[in-house]
C-alpha cells in the first residue's frame, strides 16, 4: 500500500497548526487530484505529512494488520488492488490509501 497522511493539530506526532476540518478538506483535495489522474508518488511528496514520503512516495511496502493502527489496517485490507480509499481518520490524521498489490 501507499498512503498520503494529512495531519491536524492534536493528532499523534503532528507538527501542524491546521484544524481537523482543514486537514479533511486537504485530504479530499488530494483525493480529487488522484481521481483526475494525478501521480500518487508525486502527490505524496507534495502533500503528505509523513516524513518518509519525500523519499518513498508514500510507499509503505508489505505489512500485516497488526503493524498498523486498526483504522488504517481495516481500510487498507478492505481495498481491492488499484483502489484508492476515501479519507480514513486515524490517531495520526487523515490517510488516503492506495492498494497496489
Description:
The protein has four helices and three strands; from the N terminus they run E-H-H-H-H-E-E. Helix content is 37%, strand content 14%. It has 101 residues and is α+β, with helices and mostly antiparallel strands. The chain has a single domain, classed as Chitinase A, domain 3 (Roll). A hairpin with a 2-residue loop joins strand 2 and strand 3. It has a three-stranded antiparallel sheet. The termini are close together. The mean pLDDT is 95. The longest helix has 16 residues, at 20-35.
SSE topology:
Layout: E1 2-6, H1 20-35, H2 40-47, H3 53-56, H4 70-78, E2 88-90, E3 93-98
Antiparallel strand pairs: 1-3, 2-3
Summarize the structure.
The protein is of the alpha+beta class and 101 residues long. Helices cover 37% and strands 14% of the residues. The protein has one domain: Chitinase A, domain 3, CATH 3.10.50.40.
Amino acid at each position: 500500500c501507499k498512503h498520503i497522511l494529512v495531519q491536524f493539530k492534536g493528532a499523534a506526532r503532528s507538527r501542524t497548526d491546521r484544524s481537523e476540518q482543514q486537514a479533511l478538506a486537504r485530504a479530499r483535495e488530494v483525493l480529487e487530484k488522484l481521481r483526475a489522474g494525478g501521480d500518487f508518488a508525486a502527490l505524496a511528496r507534495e502533500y503528505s505529512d509523513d516524513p518518509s514520503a519525500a523519499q518513498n512516495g508514500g510507499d509503505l511496502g508489505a505489512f500485516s494488520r497488526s503493524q498498523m493502527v486498526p483504522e488504517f489496517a481495516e481500510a487498507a485490507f478492505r481495498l481491492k488492488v488499484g483502489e484508492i480509499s476515501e479519507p480514513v481518520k486515524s490517531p495520526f490524521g487523515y490517510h488516503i490509501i492506495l492498494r497496489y498489490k
